[in-house]
Write a structure and sequence with these properties.
Layout: H1 2-25, E1 30-32, E2 39-41, H2 50-55, H3 57-68, H4 75-98, E3 102-106, H5 114-121, E4 134-135, E5 148-149, H6 168-185, H7 193-199, H8 220-230, E6 233-234, E7 255-264, H9 269-279, E8 282-286, E9 294-299, E10 311-324, E11 329-337, E12 349-353, E13 365-373
Parallel strand pairs: 1-3, 4-7, 9-12
Antiparallel strand pairs: 1-2, 3-9, 5-10, 6-7, 7-13, 8-10, 8-13, 10-11, 11-12
Helix pairs in contact: 6-7, 6-8
Length: 376
C-alpha cells in the first residue's frame, strides 16, 4: 500500500511539473536569435498541440536558414532538410514537456537527424572498466562555497566550437588542462585540440576498440595518457583547430603545459564539487539526449539515461538558484562549458540540475591533479 501511495505521489508531482511548464512556456516554440540567451518567440501556441507547431513550419525554416546561414545543394536536399526540421520541431516540444525547467526549441542543429547530430557533434567513446588514472581519495565537503565558478577567477578560456567533427573529448581534455595550468601558473593559455585530433591514437588497454580517433571520437582518459607520453600540449595559436582529421604536426619545442597525473573522481556529486573547487574544472562525460534542442535554463529531465554517455564536456562551476518544475523548487545545478560555439545554449554553456546523477553526469569524471609548467 505504501508503495502504491508513493507511486501516486510521484505521478502527481510529474503532472504538476507539466502544468508549470504550460504556464511558463505556452508562448510556443522558441529560437535563439542572438548569441546566447536572446530568445525570440516565433508563435503563440501550446506545445501540447503538435499540429499547431507545424502550421508555420515553413516560415520558421526560412528564419532558421537566415539565422544560421544554411544553404543546401538543391531542391531535393532542401526538401529533405525541411522534413527533418519539422521532425525536430516535434522533438523540441517533446523535450519541453519532459524537461520543463529548461527551454527547448529551434537551434542550429534543427536540420540534422539524431544520427547525424550524434556522429558530428558528440564523439565520446564507451570506456571499459579499466581505469588509467588513480582513484581520487575522498575530500572534505563541509565548507564548500554555496556557489562557485572558475570563470570568475579567469581559469576558463572562451567557448570554442568543434564544428562537425566528433572531437568533444579533445575539448573536454584541453579545458581541464587549461584550468590546471592556470592554477599552477596564474596564466590562462588556450591549448591545442587539433594536436589531440591529429596525433593522439592511444587505446584503452582493456578495449582495443576504444581508441582516440580524431573526429571519430575518443576518451578524455586516453587523451591524458597521450599528453603524458608526448610530453605535453602546444598552444592553440601554434597548432590551430581545423575541424577535421589531419597529419600530426606536433612540435616538442613548442610545448606549454604538461600533465603529470590525473585522478578519477569518486562517483558522488558532493565529491565532484570538492574536486572542482580544489583542483579546477572537471572533464566529464554526459548523456547529451536533451542538448540538441536546448536553449537555456536549468535542464532536469524527467527521464534521461545515466548509462548512455556519449558527449565530453567541462564542468566549470555550480549554482543554487535554478528553478526546476519537476523538482518543484529551486535546486542546485552544474555550470557546464560545451564545445558547440557561443551561439548554442546560454552563450555556449549548459546548466544541469545537480545532486541526482542526472544524465550520467557523475559516472565518468576526471580531474587533472598536477601540471608541470614548461616555460613558454
Amino acid at each position: 500500500m505504501a508503495r502504491v501511495q508513493y507511486l501516486l505521489c510521484v505521478l502527481a508531482l510529474v503532472a504538476v511539473g507539466f502544468v508549470v511548464a504550460v504556464s511558463a512556456f505556452d508562448d510556443g516554440i522558441e529560437m535563439v536569435v542572438g548569441d546566447g540567451m536572446e530568445d525570440g518567440v516565433l508563435n503563440e501556441e501550446s506545445f501540447f498541440d503538435p499540429a499547431k507547431a507545424l502550421l508555420q513550419a515553413e516560415s520558421r525554416f526560412e528564419l532558421f536558414k537566415r539565422k544560421f546561414g544554411k544553404v543546401y545543394s538543391g531542391p531535393e536536399e532542401h526538401g529533405r532538410r525541411f522534413g527533418i526540421f519539422k521532425d525536430n520541431l516535434l522533438r523540441a516540444l517533446e523535450h519541453q514537456a519532459l524537461d520543463p525547467g529548461a527551454k527547448h526549441g529551434i537551434t542550429k542543429f534543427s536540420d540534422l537527424t539524431e544520427e547525424e547530430f550524434e556522429a558530428q557533434y558528440l564523439g565520446m567513446k564507451k570506456p571499459s572498466s579499466h581505469k588509467f588514472g588513480v582513484q581520487g581519495p575522498p575530500l572534505p565537503t563541509d565548507n564548500l562555497p554555496e556557489a562557485f565558478d572558475w570563470r570568475d577567477a579567469g581559469a576558463v578560456t572562451e567557448v570554442k566550437d568543434q564544428g562537425g567533427c566528433g572531437s568533444c573529448w579533445a575539448f573536454s581534455t584541453t579545458g581541464a588542462v587549461e584550468g590546471a595550468h592556470f592554477l599552477s601558473t596564474g596564466k590562462l593559455v588556450s591549448l591545442s585540440e587539433q594536436q589531440l585530433v591529429d596525433c593522439d591514437h592511444v587505446c584503452d588497454p582493456v578495449d582495443p576498440m576504444s581508441c582516440d580517433a580524431g573526429c571519430n571520437g575518443g576518451l578524455m582518459t586516453n587523451a591524458y595518457e597521450y599528453i603524458k607520453e608526448a610530453g605535453g600540449l602546444m598552444k592553440e595559436a601554434d597548432y590551430g583547430y581545423t575541424g577535421q582529421d589531419g597529419t600530426c604536426k606536433f612540435n616538442s619545442n613548442k610545448l606549454v603545459a604538461k600533465v603529470k597525473n590525473f585522478t578519477e573522481v569518486p562517483v558522488d556529486e558532493a565529491q565532484m564539487g570538492a574536486y572542482l573547487v580544489n583542483y579546477g574544472p572537471l572533464a566529464v562525460g554526459i548523456n547529451a539526449a536533451f542538448m540538441q534542442t536546448y536553449i537555456g535554463g536549468v535542464s532536469c529531465p524527467i527521464i534521461c539515461s545515466k548509462r548512455n554517455i556519449d558527449h565530453g564536456v567541462l564542468i566549470v562551476g555550480y549554482g543554487v538558484h535554478g528553478f526546476t518544475p519537476v523538482r518543484l523548487s529551486y535546486k542546485p545545478y552544474w555550470i557546464i562549458k560545451n564545445s558547440w560555439g557561443a551561439n548554442w545554449g546560454e552563450h555556449g554553456y549548459y546548466k544541469l540540475c545537480r545532486g541526482y546523477g542526472e544524465c550520467g553526469i557523475s559516472s565518468m569524471v576526471s580531474s587533472v591533479a598536477a601540471v608541470a609548467v614548461i616555460d613558454s
